[in-house]
Design brief:
Rossmann fold; alpha/beta; six-stranded parallel β-sheet; six-stranded mixed β-sheet; homodimer; 3 domains; elongated; DNA-binding; 434 Repressor (Amino-terminal Domain)
Amino acid sequence: MRARARIKDVASLAGVSTATVSRALSSPDTVGPATREKVMEAVKATGYRINAAARDLRQRRARSILILAPDLSNTFFGKIFAAIQEEASDVGLTVQISDSRIGRDRLLSLGYDGRADGIVLLDGGIDPEVVNGWKLPLVQLSEWNDEYRAPRLGIDNRAAARLAVDHLADLGHRDILHVSGPGENVLGVERQEGFLMAAADRGMTATVFPGAFTLEAGAQAARHWAALATRPTAVFCASDECALGFISECVHAGFDVPSDVSVVGFDDIDFADRFLPALTTIRQPRADMGRAAAARIIQMVEGRAAGSDNVDALPTERLEPALIIRSSTGTPKRKPGAPA
Amino acid sequence: MRARARIKDVASLAGVSTATVSRALSSPDTVGPATREKVMEAVKATGYRINAAARDLRQRRARSILILAPDLSNTFFGKIFAAIQEEASDVGLTVQISDSRIGRDRLLSLGYDGRADGIVLLDGGIDPEVVNGWKLPLVQLSEWNDEYRAPRLGIDNRAAARLAVDHLADLGHRDILHVSGPGENVLGVERQEGFLMAAADRGMTATVFPGAFTLEAGAQAARHWAALATRPTAVFCASDECALGFISECVHAGFDVPSDVSVVGFDDIDFADRFLPALTTIRQPRADMGRAAAARIIQMVEGRAAGSDNVDALPTERLEPALIIRSSTGTPKRKPGAPA
DNA sequence: CTGAAAGCGCTTACAG
DNA sequence: CTGAAAGCGCTTACAG
């Protein structure tokens, strides 16, 4: 198999300089029509394809953006990756993904090694020193950290939690439970705060179980809930996985959802509407989030390439969550002897 | 903010040549201890980090592997991505992902542009001309195409389907249905073939509904099934999503799973064991598949770098699927008047 | 053990 | 409109 053609090969076949080949390819109207013709023929004859790595080095760009997420296998990220990749691909950018828990030193290198022009960060738990040490355009997506000097994109998690609480209050629930996210996670913290504030505003009895975003955390919370002397009639879980785990465990223990307990999730993952019962949840517009992050990082990367200043200081952007009412929530069972 | 330090800056600060800096960093024992010391100090003082893009161009490597999949948001791929990235990261390789449906020309470029050293391909539906035109090490994972000249990694889908059929036969089912994958997909085709052969071997009545790997396809199949005069007592779906859609729709229509119909899925996605009922399914060892593919492509890439020949011709490798029995399958209901 | 020089494959002022 | 030359930031024979 013949080695790949280089620009030199095209140039000598066409009888022009490499500079001319380069120009004919990147800005065709800066060369004469006859020359362009000759070059194009030589390109076809040699099967030449540009070596992007060489071009990028010369132009001091990478034409690539890096997505950093704490767990690549988390189903929550799939749609986000897809949306980012689609937008990036449209403007000729390549997409790299990496787990964000690869160790401090490797993480530091990422922002320096010339292989990415910009970073979309889905993890608020990285040492701010590392993040702020990167010399690359950066946007925080979904999760964030106040110490990172970078714009944020995502929903208002407090307001989103309020959507869930209000729905439950409107249904007539007075005693509600929240299975929280992991304690160190901003998303979980804000959802919990929103839950507590909204419950207070509606005069509800509110309790919190510390949890996580996992199926297992939900299942465990369900066991605690089942063991309670007086059980809250509704629960708001910090994620859909958690809610699914909660429901699953409840059903196995002989309870009915929603008649024994109403359950609201968070995210609206793909299976939420196919679960039995279909899950009432707060939808995060994941594709929109991915698209917005891609658009933003592209803008920053291009802006920087164009020499614009303070393009890195663009503001935070909020996307809208939505309450999706399905079958896992309903009116609370009247307690025997309770007033109408 | 100071521009990033280059190797030149380190060299002049340390009072040595760039060659020496390069050596001190990449093979420390080829330089004198005193020199090494000086260089390391200068590295620290300048905050120097190697520019990987430049090194890679010089070495004619990309230190990156590309994953190509037909739908990045498909939850099936998450664990595979994670496993590949982990293995790659361990040997200093970067991971790129791209949707494989980005158009012929872009696809062609991927194998030529110097930005990847090898490709893990999760799509058997690309034009073989394109795939075989790539000049890069390549492995086919999960899906494949006989016309691609590249090793294959994945399970034996016929044998896997037989696992499902045997389970159903052992339970006492005599009349079974298969909701197939999309007609053009090798995975679906092999599962269907395995289903048909195994059913024949067990002397069962077998029928096939053409389907897809989606929730919606399963739901639609359930509607057809429900409308049948005599309904098969068990169904084997080509994917878990399809099975979940099937069950969900059955339950909504008032049927019980498994007492009215046993359902087996395929893949063992994360929610399979939390679904209600928990889904009996064929497990594909996705993390193992990702790891094996990564190991293989790394071996090919390194082998090529080391100048070994015919490293691209390594053989196909089969991983083992497993039957996971949960609650969506059971003994068929005795038909009224049927013999014991 | 160390340095000067060439080169990876491109692009882009600078001249003409 | 086109070419010669420098250079992106490294590495690596080749000498010494």
